[in-house]
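Lecture notes, continued. The same structure-token format from the folding unit now serves as the input rather than the output. Read the line below as a description of shape only.
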């Protein structure tokens, strides 16, 4: 998996991603069919509404996408159109006696990013090559964020809730204020986000219905997309960190993160550190 260094203002971070992953971004936007995608985008009122809400409620990520589009040579609207086009995944947080583990299903065609934003928290993230937001990340203060996508009902806002993940990593160092932010910020329904921090606090937000709701920690485990039997087994294993990691991998969530600033992109790969 390629590591991309993204540094500076949001538009600069997007430019770094666009230059490093240009071929993959062009291919994801349809290669020679970009003009067709662009015409389809312009003809859709819902797509224009999504672009409006991304710029209004996620201005840093709008700039990130603009920088990426310019560097890769694709229309910005093509990248915005693909923000919610992610496969369904599962996520889990387990608070053990020896530490916290956050597990997630791998999203195909992702990249590992080291983000050093101007004047904000740096982060280590896994994100789709065309996306501004990660599906799993940890920042320099130990806040871990994982997002699982799901189709949701049509709501008042059109920008996908997954975009809150990047904002949380950029802004917050603890679960409490990040959770409050996620419960109140405008975003489209669909999916869920789990959060954990260096103090061992874990929480989540369910965006799958018309009304979002907090998902509090239940005996050390939070999960979305995993069966009740898997969750019950994880609760039993809270005294054995290695067993928790094995169970997360077996349940289809082998990509791990922890508040120590580390990501493990697969069940067999070494940990990658935010400090390295």
């Amino acid at each position: 998996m390629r590591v991309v260094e993204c540094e500076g203002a949001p538009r600069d971070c997007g430019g770094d991603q666009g230059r490093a992953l240009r071929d993959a971004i062009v291919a994801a936007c349809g290669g020679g069919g970009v003009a067709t995608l662009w015409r389809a985008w312009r003809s859709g009122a819902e797509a224009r509404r999504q672009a409006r809400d991304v710029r209004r409620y996620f201005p840093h990520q709008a700039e990130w996408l603009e920088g990426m589009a310019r560097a890769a040579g694709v229309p910005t609207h093509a990248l915005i159109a693909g923000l919610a086009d992610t496969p369904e995944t599962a996520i889990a947080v387990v608070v053990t006696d020896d530490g916290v583990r956050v597990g997630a299903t791998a999203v195909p065609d992702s990249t590992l990013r080291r983000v050093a934003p101007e004047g904000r928290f740096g982060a280590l993230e896994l994100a789709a090559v065309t996306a501004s937001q990660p599906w799993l990340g940890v920042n320099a203060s130990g806040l871990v964020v994982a997002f699982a996508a799901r189709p949701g009902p049509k709501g008042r806002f059109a920008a996908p809730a997954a975009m809150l993940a990047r904002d949380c990593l950029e802004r917050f160092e603890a679960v409490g204020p990040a959770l409050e932010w996620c419960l109140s910020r405008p975003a489209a329904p669909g999916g869920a986000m789990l959060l954990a921090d260096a103090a061992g606090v874990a929480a989540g937000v369910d965006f799958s219905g018309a009304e979002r709701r907090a998902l509090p920690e239940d005996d050390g485990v939070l999960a979305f997309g995993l069966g009740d039997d898997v969750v019950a087994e994880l609760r039993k294993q809270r005294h054995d960190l290695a067993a928790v990691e094995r169970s997360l991998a077996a349940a289809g969530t082998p990509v791990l993160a922890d508040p120590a600033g580390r990501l493990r992109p697969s069940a067999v790969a070494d940990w990658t550190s935010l400090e390295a």
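Point for the exam: The mean pLDDT is 90.
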